[in-house]
């Protein structure tokens, strides 16, 4: 009981506090590649604190939905985080929670699109349209990844899928393919390069950022914080594909998760530094390619698990 309580406490502690740090690591890696000093690693913490101290401004054209969506989006993201075994065991675990994990992020996408459409602005609607279109491709690949993982492990729960007693690395080609496919999903879902530039301020080319243009103050702070939690969860998921949780205690698993997330942050920073943003019409082709890769991984998994 004490071990379970420690595991849950560490889980929430990591999910609540750590995510902005890894966004800072990504930005620092990008700064190093660009040959500049760049912002401090803890910059996002400062930005969130500054925004929380300000007041919010709301357009007269928005409804009550616009005000409640930021906190609703954060709750949905946090709930998805409780299904992931961050400290070796998930807070909530049941058969089929892997499917719920994908649907929670789909719900989050629906919420942010609703907020963008509620403003009645042309730019926000344009960003919502792009988010919906690219999200349809991303969800398809995500479901194939979940199906392949279920076939590979024989489980439909993330708590069981990402547990491998006595090993630190999955060497099967199918898992490497799934990692590559999901990495594209990570970049797409979190509006990272080469899909989207999180630092751009040109409305015509933005996807995610243009949808939150009307938010300010505490609402914007919640959205920024929720985005950092989301990318952290995706980074942990991607890392667990090839580096599952071994048979360690909660503290060791928590430390291992932070290390994995740190490594993923470095990888993302490098990818964003050496790639340029691709044209919008090319993004579906990239997502279709990731779907094909995940499909190959699924076929490979089925072939390996089928009786001779």
- How many angstroms does the end-to-end distance come to? 44 Å
Shape: globular
Number of helices: 11
Compute the CA-based radius of gyration: 19 Å
Low-confidence stretches: none
Beta content comes to under 5%
Q: Give the topology string: H per helix, E per strand.
A: HHHHHHHHHHH
Helix % is 55-70%
Biggest pleated sheet: none
Residue-averaged pLDDT = 88
Tally of discrete structural domains:
1
Number of beta strands: 0
Textual characterization of the structure:
It is built from 11 helices and no strands. It has one domain (about 1-305). The chain is mainly α. It is about 70% helix and about 0% strand. About 45% of the residues are buried. The model has no long low-confidence stretch (mean pLDDT about 90). It has helices spanning about 1-15, 20-35, 45-50, 65-80, 95-120, 120-155, 160, 175-190, 215-240, 250-275, 285-305.
In short:
With 308 residues, the chain is an all-alpha fold. It is built from 11 helices and no strands. The relative contact order is 0.17.
SSE diagram, text form:
Blueprint: H1 2-17, H2 19-34, H3 43-52, H4 64-82, H5 97-118, H6 122-153, H7 158-161, H8 173-189, H9 217-242, H10 250-274, H11 283-305
Helix pairs in contact: 1-10, 2-9, 2-10, 3-9, 4-5, 4-9, 5-6, 6-8, 6-11, 8-9, 8-11, 9-10
């Amino acid at each position: 009981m004490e071990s379970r309580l420690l595991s849950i406490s560490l889980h929430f502690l990591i999910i609540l506090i750590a995510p902005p740090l890894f966004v800072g690591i990504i930005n620092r890696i990008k700064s190093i590649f660009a040959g500049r000093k760049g912002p401090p690693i803890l910059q996002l913490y400062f930005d969130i604190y500054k925004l929380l101290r300000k007041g919010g401004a709301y357009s007269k054209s928005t409804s009550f939905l616009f005000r409640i969506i930021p906190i609703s989006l954060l709750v949905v993201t946090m709930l998805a985080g409780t299904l992931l075994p961050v400290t070796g065991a998930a807070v909530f675990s049941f058969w089929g929670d892997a499917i719920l994990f994908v649907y929670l992020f789909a719900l989050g996408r629906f919420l942010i699109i609703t907020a963008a459409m509620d403003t009645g602005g042309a730019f926000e609607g344009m960003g919502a349209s792009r988010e919906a279109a690219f999200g349809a491709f991303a969800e398809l690949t995500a479901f194939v990844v979940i199906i392949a993982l279920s076939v590979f492990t024989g489980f439909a729960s993330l708590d069981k899928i990402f547990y491998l007693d006595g090993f630190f690395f999955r060497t099967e080609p199918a898992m490497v393919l799934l990692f590559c496919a999901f990495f594209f999903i990570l970049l797409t879902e979190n509006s990272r390069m080469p899909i989207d530039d999180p630092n751009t301020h040109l409305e015509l080319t933005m996807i995610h950022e243009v949808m939150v243009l009307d938010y300010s103050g505490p609402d914007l702070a919640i959205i920024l914080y929720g985005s950092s939690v989301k990318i952290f969860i995706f980074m942990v998921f991607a890392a667990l594909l090839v580096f599952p949780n071994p048979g360690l205690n909660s503290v060791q698993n928590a430390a291992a998760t932070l290390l994995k997330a740190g490594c993923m942050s470095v990888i993302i920073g490098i990818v964003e530094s050496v790639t340029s943003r691709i044209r919008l019409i090319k993004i579906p082709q990239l997502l279709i390619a990731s779907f094909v890769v995940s499909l190959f991984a699924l076929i490979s998994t089925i072939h390996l698990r089928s009786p001779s």
